[in-house]
Amino acid sequence: MTGPVPVPPAMTGRAARSRRVIPGFGLTLGYTMLYLSLIVLIPLSATFFRSLDSGWGHFWAVVTAPRVVASLRLSFGAALLAAAVNAVFGLVIAWVLVRYRFPFRRLIDAMVDLPFALPTAVAGIALTALYAPNGWLGRGLQPLGIHVAFTPLGVVIALIFIGLPFVVRTLQPVLEELDKEVEQAAATLGASEWQTFARVILPALWPALLTGFALAFARAVGEYGSVIFIAGNMPMKSEIAPLLIITKLEQYDYSGATAIAVVMLVLSFALMLGINALQSWASTRHGAA
Amino acid sequence: MEAPAIAATYEAPVSRALRRQGPRQGMRWGRLMLIGVALSFLAAFVLLPLLVVFAQAFSKGLGVYLAAVSEPTAWSAVKLTLTVAAIAVPMNLLFGVVSAWAITKFQFRGKSTLITLIDLPFAVSPVIAGLTYILLFGARGWFGPYLQAHDIRMVFAVPGIVLATLFVTFPFVARELIPVMQAQGKHDEETALSLGAGGWQVFWHVTLPNIRWGLLYGVLLCNARAMGEFGAVSVVSGHIRGLTNTMPLHVEILYNEYNYAAAFAVASLLALLALLTLAGKSFLEWRQPELRHGTRRARADLEK
Question: Selecting from 2.60.40.10, 3.50.20.10, 2.30.110.10, 1.10.3720.10, what CATH number does the domain B58-303 have?
Fold first, then answer.
């Protein structure tokens, strides 16, 4: 126990030179890079390499096929719509949980995380049971002409479910830290409640709202488990891109599956970069907050 | 002594203005309406899905429920799910501690890129995660011929399921630990080292006690995802009943066979796991309130 502890050999020379007191730099960073490469980076780059196996022409033919385009449009469109709905209602929920006091608030707050914790397959069959024509909610919506289960609307519902905590949990800390004196100052200066919200509170929340939106969107684009049960999976109509990847794999169409995967990866990375840029612009503009 | 007096003088006009500001009745209605909207939304999207799982699970009575969860294929699914989590969670736990040590105790170039790369699996569809391993280890994958020649099964077998689970749960422990260790700084460790403690001693006796709640928090979230993962595992498992079926996959099979009561019975076990996870999470947040919002703040600190 008390004997001298060997310092990893990679450490000694460099550590001594840069006068690092804490040991383990080489060992921990090395292991981090190795494990990251083995589990994440090498498999992901393999996907990019493999997508060009059958040539650029084949790649282009696969990703411009009408069924693939329709599925990509559904995955990205439904994810955007769901993230937008979550941004609005997530803001209301975060606001209510931070600013108001009511019975069972703590319990309700804890429940917001359920979509994180509930396995997606369970969420999928539960939402389908709820929104099916004879389900608890579907029964009420059916006479109004609203069909949720087995339509693109069902896809959006499932994506709202899984994205909600991202928005609420990103907004809550910012709302908690928001200086109430600024709102009071706005009120003293004669601003109405709505003016205070639109001109004082909302600008301070923009960066966090965008982050929450981006996280919810990123999660929703690739979502599979909660969607496939409620979507009905009709080609050209309610078939999401991840499902099409699996369909192609089951037909041993590896290059087709890989091509769709690469398009999804590139599109979502590009969108995330765009949102990151927008977010840093928003936070410099409202830097004080 | 002076400060409260000043606060009082400034407080007065504010509250007067707020009082003057008009119909308090309106404010109260607005508040009630917002609470109503928030709670209805949560009821429709969170509470009802949870309730429907248990309602459907017991819809055919307790007998059917017990039969569904004690059936041999259900048991082998439970066992496989526990096995996979028992391998994947410790591996990602080790990675989480090691990477958080590297990131929070040292300065080096490219640190923020490294953090982004660790978060990368969150931005990748689970289905694509599964696909990448098929492309590497499948029959027509890069290492496929080698594996076949040596009679090693990776995909459509347990190792593939473990790998896919490792990928999707990769960032969980690291991203909870990095903010916790960042907030704690390195003063304690430096003091212990200057008093003559060795590296491992410092880790076991100084760092580990400091981060234990954060560590548990990460493990809890990582475990919930590992046991519940569906998309990635679905791609690599091959759905061999009794052999490569995890619990979520078993739920899918039963559901697709129109055996709804049984599907929801097994699903209710997973829902119970989710509820336990939430309870544990709330407990840890009560023990250490910083855990709740740690990630965001430390992230901002690191990127400065």
Answer: 1.10.3720.10
